[in-house]
Amino acid sequence: MQDLTAHHVGLTVSDLDRAVEFYRDTLGLDVLSRFSVGGEAFATGVGIAGASADFAHLDADGARVELVEYDPESDRHPEGRVNQPGATHLGLEVDDLDGFYAGLPEDVPTISEPQTTESGTRICFLRDPDGHLVEVLEL
Fold first, then answer.
1. What is the pLDDT of residue 138?
2. Of 44, 127, 132, 137, which one is least surrounded by beta carbons within 10 A?
């Protein structure tokens, strides 16, 4: 099993600009970056047909907070999907995503095999025993 490193805690929001303003101006977090991701690999990786999203990464004294606003045209699904406002996920980084994925026990539910997004980040999502979303990524 590979060593996992905490990368981020992700929050899905309905209005990224409003959320950034709150976390930056009200809570004092520094904005590290803003970017957009779309494309087939991203949509497959998150398990949402046609998904694209805008992201902001903020620094909470060394802990990265990821705010995500999915394109309103993205296919909306019932509660429990990563593109629903209020959804949370834990992001963990590995050096070798394919090796990590290959070593997962067969009973761990995954959203997809590892995917390379337009930004070059490799991702896969899985669920913990209580159904929480866990993103495992390789930069």
1. 96
2. 132
Mapped onto helix, strand or coil, the DSSP state of residue 17 is helix
CB 65 within 8 A of CB 39: no
Give the predicted TM-score (pTM) of the model. 0.74
What does the domain layout of the chain look like in residue ranges? 5-138
Q: Do the beta carbons of residue 139 and residue 94 sit within 8 Å?
A: no
Six-digit token string for 19: 């959320």
Please give the single-letter amino acid code of residue 64: R
Nearest to 45 by CA among 128, 105, 115: 115
**Does 5-138 carry CATH code 3.10.180.10?**
yes
- pLDDT score of 127 more than 80: yes
Residues 44, 118: contact at Cβ < 8 Å? no
Contact 111/138 with Cβ under 8 angstroms?
no
